[in-house]
């Protein structure tokens, strides 16, 4: 079971419950989440962080204390930074409402600017034509219309208005605000995190920043209407060029299945080639996925749309119906391969390793650590101080890899966590008196937990590296997977000092999934035709590699004459003769992508060149 925790939701829930318990009846001010009324009175409030008792001024005085405002009260020295910023923002809204009431701000009659002092510290100056200034954080709505209600005050995000000189140099605080806004959008709407790898992601951010404050995001109707049509027109020429490149380089069709909470299944089809990845179409396939025959019919229609001669690899998950349909598709055409998704297979290996005796126990304890820390705001803040702001929970492209990346982070933060759970601050806290707090503390100081964690990561770290290799869009992974998997097995044996009883349980899982699900002749041929690997001094071939290369030649080049030419020219590649031996070609073995290297230095052998590039 994954221990990825929606910690922000759990943390907000905890704060909400404490707020309900300690706030006066019908109170709506967020400041009550951070203080306790003394003797039931609003004029005597104790700060939750430094425990100072604030006399007079009510909740506003407490918020000034938390926001670090001097004058009416001494600033709090223990308040977490995120709470401090929240209080500063809330006080800014209050001032803005007062400003509106006093001067009747309308439209663009007054200007609002959020400036930086020369020392880099942020001060908000709200300026009117009368020259009044307030040092408060404010929110700007639609170019100067300040129509705020209670809900706005609780949930607003500040808009930071800067001069053109400052616009290209955001402060760390403003960058953090932007990061959180993007993160919330991604998670709350269910957008895959891999979307952030798109080149359009940063382009979107740059365009929004260039538009400046007051820019409104397009509406649902605009996105599905005129903007969709305009985008299609703008992309028509690049897409045409992308499709034309399939004839030269070949392409891989990638099948991605998604299921929602209602059980509805959608299959997305993508086409990858060295020039980029194209989203082909999306199909509602709730009933289709239950039948390999119906899946085969759907896959066949996609192959016809892409062009059978262009397809080199058809990639799906390993579910039985998908696998059967893929194998049937390969049997029909005999000009391309079906293979399982590499990331999916690596995740299967990680899942089975996670169920091994010893490893499962490690994950149970790691889950307890993450849940306890992220379910308590004070504990989370204490951890962030010890780790320099680093998070424990790590999100990755697959479910089980997220677990292992999180365990990897816990081990890397062993010393800060140990210092945190043995510090006087922790020992004097009420959390240590709780059962779960005591159990987590015992785990953190237990040498056996750390030794078992490190033992597990000896094998899984190389697997995580393979997973990251498959996610690399800048370099196709097909020519590197075979070599990477060989290194995984070699590293496992070395990590356990060649003790077969220690490493064999892990290698049995890896080998079985590699042979039964992941390995393809394309991996063997890609490895052999990858100059950065083939020309290394320690390279040696095997029967599996030779058979994989011959299978690729016969499948991807059906013409027998061309097959003979390819096999006869391989000797020139092996001996690095002709252009293969040029000094610039020797330098390019490591620095160039394999397809680029073959495009440049195999012009004398066009049939072999075409095979290697594809």
Automatic annotation (TrEMBL):
Isomerase keyword on record? no
Q: Which domain of life is it from?
A: Eukaryota
BED-type domain residues: 26-83
InterPro entries, sorted: DUF659, RNaseH-like_sf, Znf_BED
Alphabetic keyword roster: Metal-binding, Zinc, Zinc-finger
- Report the GO molecular function annotations: DNA binding; zinc ion binding
The record, for Pfam families, names:
DUF659 (PF04937), zf-BED (PF02892)
The keyword Zinc-finger is assigned to this record: yes
Q: Could you tell me what this protein is called?
A: BED-type domain-containing protein
Q: What is the lineage of its organism?
A: Eukaryota, Viridiplantae, Streptophyta, Embryophyta, Tracheophyta
């Amino acid at each position: 079971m994954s221990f990825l925790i929606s910690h922000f939701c759990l943390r907000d829930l905890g704060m909400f419950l404490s707020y309900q318990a300690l706030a006066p009846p019908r109170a709506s001010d967020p400041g009550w989440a951070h203080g306790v009324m003394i003797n039931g009175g609003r004029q005597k409030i104790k700060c939750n962080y430094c425990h100072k008792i604030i006399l007079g001024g009510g909740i506003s005085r407490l918020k000034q204390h938390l926001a670090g405002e001097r004058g009416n009260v001494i600033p709090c020295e223990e308040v977490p930074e995120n709470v401090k910023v929240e209080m500063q923002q809330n006080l800014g809204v209050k001032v803005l409402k007062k400003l509106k009431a006093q001067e009747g701000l309308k439209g663009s009659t007054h200007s609002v600017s959020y400036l930086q002092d020369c020392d880099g510290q942020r001060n908000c100056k709200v300026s009117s034509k009368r020259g009044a200034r307030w040092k408060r954080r404010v929110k700007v709505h639609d170019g100067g219309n300040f129509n705020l209600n209670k809900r706005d005050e609780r949930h607003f995000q500040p808009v930071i208005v800067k001069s053109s000189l400052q616009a290209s140099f955001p402060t760390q605080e403003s960058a953090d605000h932007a990061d959180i806004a993007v993160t919330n959008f991604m998670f709350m709407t269910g957008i895959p995190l891999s979307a952030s790898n798109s080149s359009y992601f940063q382009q979107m951010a740059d365009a929004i920043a260039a538009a400046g404050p007051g820019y409104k995001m397009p509406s649902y109707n605009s996105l599905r209407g005129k903007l969709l049509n305009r985008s299609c027109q703008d992309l028509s020429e690049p897409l045409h060029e992308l499709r034309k490149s399939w004839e030269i380089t070949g392409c891989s069709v990638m099948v991605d299945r998604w299921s929602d909470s209602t059980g509805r299944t959608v299959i997305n089809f993508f086409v990858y080639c060295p020039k980029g990845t194209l989203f082909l179409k999306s199909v509602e396939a709730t009933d289709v996925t239950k039948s390999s025959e119906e899946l085969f019919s759907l896959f066949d229609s996609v192959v016809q749309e892409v062009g059978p001669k262009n397809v080199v690899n058809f990639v799906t998950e390993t579910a039985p119906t998908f696998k059967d349909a893929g194998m049937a598709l390969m049997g029909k055409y005999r000009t391309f391969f079906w293979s399982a998704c590499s990331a999916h297979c690596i995740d299967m290996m990680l899942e089975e390793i996670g169920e091994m005796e010893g490893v499962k126990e490690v994950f149970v304890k790691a889950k307890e650590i993450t849940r306890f820390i992220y379910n308590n705001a004070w504990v989370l803040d204490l951890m962030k101080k010890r780790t320099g702001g680093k998070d424990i929970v790590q999100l990755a492209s697959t479910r089980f890899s997220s677990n292992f990346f999180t365990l990897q982070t816990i081990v890397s933060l062993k010393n800060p966590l140990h210092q945190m759970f043995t510090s006087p601050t922790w020992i004097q806290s009420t959390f240590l008196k709780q059962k779960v707090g005591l159990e987590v503390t015992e785990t953190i100081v237990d040498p056996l937990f750390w030794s078992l964690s490190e033992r597990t990561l000896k094998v899984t770290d190389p697997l995580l590296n393979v997973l990251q290799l498959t996610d690399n869009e800048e370099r196709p992974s097909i020519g590197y997977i075979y070599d990477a998997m060989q290194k995984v097995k070699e590293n496992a044996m070395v990590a356990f000092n060649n003790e077969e009883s220690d490493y064999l349980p892990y290698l049995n899982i890896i080998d079985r999934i590699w042979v039964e699900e992941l390995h393809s002749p394309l991996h063997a041929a890609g490895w052999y035709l990858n100059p950065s690997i083939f020309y290394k001094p320690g390279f040696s071939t095997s029967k599996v590699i030779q058979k994989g290369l011959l299978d690729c030649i016969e499948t991807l080049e059906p013409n027998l004459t061309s097959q003979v030419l390819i096999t006869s020219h391989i000797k020139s590649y092996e001996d690095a003769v002709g252009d293969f031996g040029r000094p610039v070609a020797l330098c390019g073995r490591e620095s160039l992508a394999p397809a680029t290297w073959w495009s440049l230095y195999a012009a004398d052998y066009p049939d072999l060149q075409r095979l290697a590039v594809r």
